Every structure is written in C-alpha cells, then in structure tokens.
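S2.1 Query sequence (Xaa-Pro aminopeptidase)
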Amino acid sequence: MSDELNPAVPDSATAEGPETESEEPIKQRKNGLYPGVSDELAENMKSGWADTELRDLKPVPQAAETARRRAALSARFPGERLVVPAGNLKTRSNDTEYPFRSSVEYAYLTGDQTEDGVLVLEPTGDGHQETIYLLPRSDRENGEFWLSGQGELWVGRRHSLTESEALYGIPAADVRELADKLREATGPVRVVRGYDAGIEAALTDKVTAERDEELRVFLSEARLVKDAFEIGELQKAVDSTVRGFEDVVKVLDRAEATSERYIEGTFFLRARVEGNDVGYGSICAAGPHACTLHWVRNDGPVRSGDLLLLDAGVETHTLYTADVTRTLPVNGTYSELQKKIYDAVYEAQEAGIAAVKPGAKYRDFHDAAQRVLTEKLVEWGLVEGPVERVLELGLQRRWTLHGTGHMLGMDVHDCAAARTETYVEGVLEPGMVLTVEPGLYFQADDLTVPEEYRGIGVRIEDDILVTEDGNRNLSAALPRRSDEVETWMASLKG
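Output structure tokens follow.
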C-alpha cells in the first residue's frame, strides 16, 4: 500500500471536510517522505483535469421501491424530523479502515451505500421534504482530492450531488453542513442510533431513546414482508451461493491438503465475483468443529471420513444475503452413522418446511422440526421419553441447541428489532422469507452419548419464501437428501 503522499485525515474531516469554513489544514502523515507541498505544486494540481461529470444517469433499479418505503415512513411519523444515517468508516488498525457497509435502514430507504450519508425527512404541511446528505466530489481547489486520506485520488471517485439526485431520486446536499442544521432544528426529531456519533451529538438535546427506538422498530418491521425487488435480490443471492457450494465441492481435495481456510477462500471468491461480499462470516466447519454453531475461525484440518458443515451466503450488490447450510461427507459418501443422523435432520427439515405457509404461526415450523428431532433422540435411547415430556422440559436442546430459523433479508438475521408480537409470536404472510435450519450436534466431550456419535454435527438450512398458497424453497437447486448429495458431489468431482 503506497504511503508517499497519503496523509492522515483530520479529525474533523467527516463533519466539515478539509479546508472548509474552519480552514483546518490537511494534515500530513507523521512519517511521510514529503514534508510539505510547494506553492507551485499546489497550483499545478488545481488545473488540467477533464470534466468527468456523469450525465443521463438512470435511477437505481430499486428507486420506485425506496420511494414507497419513504412514503410509508413519512405517513407513520407525521410532523416529525426523521434522521437516518448510513454510518462512518471504522478503523481496522492505525490508518486503515474496514470495508464500509451501509446501515440497513439507510440503504433500505435510499438505495445508496456510501459512508457518511444521511437521509433526512423534514416535516411539511402534508408530509415530509426528503434530502439525502452526502459528501460531494473532492475539492480540487484546496487539494483535498489528492492530499486527504479520503480524497478521490486515494480511494476513488464518488458521485457528485447532481449525479446522486439522478440515481436515488432524492434532492442531495453537502453532508458537511448537516450537523449545524440539526443543532438549530426545532420540533420533534427521531434518529436511527448507533451509526453516526457526530449526527447523534448534534441531536443530543432533541431526541429520546424511547422515541428513537420506535423509529428503529418501525423500519425493522417494514422489512418483514419483502417486495418483488427484494425477493428477486434474495434469489440472486441464493443462486450465487449454490454456485459457491459447487466451487467448494470441486476443491475438497485441496482443502484436505491445507485446511478449512481453503474452503472459506473458495466461497469468498464466488461472493466477491458475483456479489458484494459474504453476507456473514462463512462457517467452514470440518469434523468436530461442526458442533460449534458459529465456527468462523476456519483454521482446522479437513479429513476424509469426516463431515464438512458449510454455512455460507453470498450478499448481493444491494446487500441482500442468502443463508444456506449443507453438511457434506468430505470423501463423498456418508458413513452409516453419519447418514442416520443426517437423515434425521433432513426429516426434521422437511417437517419444518411443510409448516411454512400463510396464516401459520411463525413458531410452527420450529415446533414441527423439534418434534421430529426429539422423536429420533428418544428412539435412539439418547434421552428418556416420552416425547411430550422431553419437549416440555426442553431436554432435546442439549443436542439441537438453536432455534430452527429466522427472518432473512438485508441482514442475515433480518428484522431483529421487530416487536416480539409481530415476529416470533406473529403469523406468516406471503412475501416473508425465512430460513429453516434444524440441526443435531454431538459434542466431542459429551459423555451422555455413545462414543461413535461424539464429534458429529449436522445442519441443513434452506431459504424459504412464503407464497400465497404455501412456500417456495429459494435454494432448492442445492441437493438436500443424503443420496442426492452423494450423487451431486460425485458428479462435481468426476
């Protein structure tokens, strides 16, 4: 990474930008090789640049949907100023940052994903005036574009405010002026917290935690039912994920020669080529690591005869993620015991998926899957029945561990701030998308099960769309039944 000119960004860069009214100078890197900039070089860098303004831009594909979402938000909070930040860059170490991912609330309402952006809805007589506040193009007059660590020469071109208006269908303004405007604001205000400390500080005497939480809950519940655009994006995410799983199966021999990291890297390549990123840390759990629910270290061995639990999802460029799990025999064939356990989980998943339909309680698919798994545990003599007693006391949870699914969307665990009565205690509606993912996990140190069970973990997970007359498995292209998995793996390896 080059560091010849790249200076440290002043602390106020996000709020005011370099050389604004405060005239704060652009700071040089402490140990940079150039101690300063001559007047002649500064003058030279101001001119001789082509006009790169993009004209005749088309709106982003989801522009109509984001407009409807903002209208619903406006209707819910009439007469109130609403502030929804995208968030800021986060430091990884010293002067390097993590890749930026916009807040879900902001991206959902605008379609934009750039750091420091803020959507503001100003109350009017009959609704709200919408403005998207963004960083404009880097200033060439004051040298920001080549001297600031976040200048365009260093991190790439960003859209002008005029371009952003065309893309997102929202009037755009300079975000560096927003904090002062918010400090002077009067009347009721709500802000989505946790993303932009500077914006929150400007509103500190105008907002309350309770009112802000109501805004966050509303935006979470608004995503419970997906529109046609969102369903299409989720299907894209799943389709890329299926190809990512195929990629992994083709290189299992190389993973055996290295580690779980080869699997992680293989899937990540597909995610970055076809999407924005992985939707969450890939779980590439071989052997007994499959019993650790969120095994993301991915540094263990991959051995023939063991199972590989791969839980991974591609995130699209619009930030919708898949969430799929398959438990695969590394050598392509399940052992007798592995198959028995796998088939039990498959049977439980079948029962869970069958329970997903409009009008059903959200809990129904979980209860259906847990019942099947409990019946198997009792049948195998691992827990004393009857089944109803085990379920009542939750004794099966020693081996089933987790809930059987969750809502899916722009977050892998989407709609997490929704009220319990509209989510876990709610009723399924067409357009909802959820995972169905039962599992059985026999820990390597679990002395309550026969030794041959220990270290075996199995989970099967698919992404299910609630339809008008039942459900559709968005990830049906990926085989699930044990014999179909073996045939599929053989065809890919062959």
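The radius of gyration is 26 Å. The CA atoms of residues 356 and 365 lie 6 Å apart.
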